[in-house]
Amino acid sequence: VIRYAALRLLGALPVLWIAATATFGLLRFLPGGPFRGERTLPPEIQRNLEARYGLDRPLGQQYAAYLAGLLRGDLGPSYKYLGRDVRDVIADALPVSMQLGALALAIAGCGGIALGLAAGVRRGSALDRAIVLGTLAGVSLPSFVLGAALMLGVGLGLGWLPAGLWEGPAHAVLPALTLAALPLAYIAQLTRAQVIEVQGRDHVRTARAKGLSEPRVRRRHVLRNALLAVVTYFGPVLALLLTGSFVVEKIFAIPGMGGFFVSAVTDRDYPVVLGITLVYAALVVGSNLAVDLLYAWLDPRIRVAEPGA
Amino acid sequence: MGGAPRLGWLALLAGVALACGRSLTTAPAGELRVNIETGEPPTLDWNRASDWASILVIDQLMRGLTRLDAQLQAAPELAERWEALEGGRVWRFHLRGGVRWSDGEPLVAQQFADSWLRLLDPATGAVYAYSLFAIRGARGFNAGSAERAQVGVRAVDAATLEVELEAPLSFFPALVSFMATYPVRLDVIARHGERWTDPGHLVGVGPYVLESWRHDYRVVLRASAQWPRRPGSPERVVFHMVSDPATSLVLFEQGELDLVRIPPLEIRRYLGRPEHRSALQLYGYYYGFDTRRAPFDDARVRRAFAMALDREALVAVLHEGSRAWSAWLPPAMPAANAEIGVRFDPAGARALLREAGVEPAALGPVRLGFNNHPRHRLVAQKAQAMWRENLGVEVRLEPREWKVYLEELENDPPPLFRLGWGADYADPHGFMEVFTSHSANNHTGWGDARYDALIARAASAADFAERRALYDQAQRILCEQELPIAPLFAEARNWAVAPRVRGFAVSAMDQYFFDELELE
What we know:
The structure holds two protein chains of two kinds. In chain A, 77% of the residues lie in helices and 0% in strands. By secondary structure, chain A is mostly helical. Chain B has helices at residues 3-19, 52-61, 110-120, 138-143, 172-175, 186-192, 245-253, 267-270, 299-307, 311-316, 346-355, 360-363, 374-391, 402-411, 428-433, 449-460, 464-482, and strands at residues 31-35, 66-68, 74-76, 79-85, 90-95, 153-157, 160-164, 208-214, 218-223, 236-240, 259-261, 276-289, 323-324, 366-371, 395-400, 416-422, 485-497, 501-502, 518-519. The radius of gyration of chain B is 24 Å and the shape is globular. Helix content of chain B is 31%, strand content 21%.
């Protein structure tokens, strides 16, 4: 398993290099530089600004300098936030997004599986119908609507929870729920479908015929098999949480990475765009790897096949 | 993010928020909580800052030689008096005695000279270096063609600063109210490098010191022990950075914020409420013409397009309290003149087009460029309808992403384009200079020697009545005869202020000194 993981990690390096190079190139195709604003600067001032950040050098040299910096772990300075390195920006913002994302993932995973299981084993019941309806709403409701509704209803209207800012655990509840809603609904739907399918399989009927108690059948045979398909979905869920964080962080005024997603591009803050792209690429690669490992652990067939692989 | 999601959820807000407003917390005593809707201040280094958020925070930490009073005239601040020598070519500033930095060091004139040279030093890469280009040798030093020693600023003694300009400039004292010219401590900058603006490093001469700064989230200031405190003024100022305007309004209504800007669509709901404050800004919004190409190479066609716009109806679509304005100098600017400009006159406009030999149907579609923002789109759609109805001319809207648009303006502007201008300092010169033939901000391709000469004369004239007359003449050329631009309106800023805050008024420059407020 360790060798497999190491190989996969090594394989991720070219992916990151391609991501960095493509982003670097695409950014420079965008019209307008970082130091353009409503007022046109006198040419000498524009020159001084560009010289300060090495933007007056040929593009090839800039690219080489950037790659050399990357190898040293240096992502360069932000053009907009003076005196802050991209590393500082990410170090400040990433933990916040990770906390929010982890909380949302936990809510989506536990809630989704529980709901899906509850609905699946009592297929056709009133509870099942309610859950199916609820998850349909969760899938179709955009997060800016849900977020606003939660903020205004629970936050401003009822006054139960803070409507925004990032001060303590109470402040995390509404944004985490907003962020979790969509993946939670997906996971619930997926789990329900899997449970229904697995329940009809031979080995489950065999287990029941052997006289195993119903809770035991559900735990050992139904849930475990149903989860296999759900786990595969965790990779895309992580990507969903990362990209969804932009809207949620903005609505609830949370100091995470999401805001930089858009603002760094509109500001043409090249190093910040590159740094964030790399972090997201690394996260996606890492989460896919984690899902693969988890899958191997859950499915004995993959474990058995491994030595030969 | 497009406009649609925000519109949708603002509508939701309007419905629910009206009915219920409830506070979770009581406001901390002595603490003023202000929202910076543009987000994180990019820097607190006043030589290098160039945006509103940074300036808002810096103005609480630092003061300059002069400051603008309510009438936007230069008033004494760190300088107690000043005099003009050689007809306004040389200025001498005398510092107020006994002023200390927040670490207890005395303020001396050399620290101003240090700051200005640092501002102009090409290695600093300061955007606002040009604010001191009037000083002898300054532009050359910034461009790398002159030595530091040639720049005309020096400390005569610890309390006297002398400045030599390239040419007489009557409003120089107003220029040095600007934050880029605030003094600096080279010893502090040398000790901490780029990090000299971090909490614990930054020292200032002003009512507050920097206590903490959590990036992208919150800046906290506390009252400085070295600055006399007014009774009742905030002990602490906390800046939040809620970038979603609707959220900031919810937090305001929940009692979590004391001072927030009101988003455009919410302004109507606040009209007449005691929390609402509004003022016109030194900011003009205009449509420009590319005068280098047909059909706008003919002044009559430009005039016809300007006359076909009903500015009152145009500004009404925004519901933000902005004022229709057909002259260039905005209403709050000294020397502004409401009489100047062309009036709405559809019949006259059509006659002018005929006189110019232009067949309206054959003109179109004429492209109108603007940066893609809901406000600009609303105005552009209204203008498009007016041109169609009043002139019979078809106009095609061409929204662009902001930076793409800026590049287009510089290289190949559309025949019609939207732009605005905000004052750096409260003197007409900066505004009028935009449309001189040598200005990099003049994207119209228009130039007029008479206009250039009037602006140059007005800059050095000492008597304000004389300057006013010169600006009137220049504005008549710009807004009545030649019309390379059609000024549309002066923008208003709208703030919501918690009842516990007293003494807050929206300033025409959107510039605030929070130590002047009182908290209940």
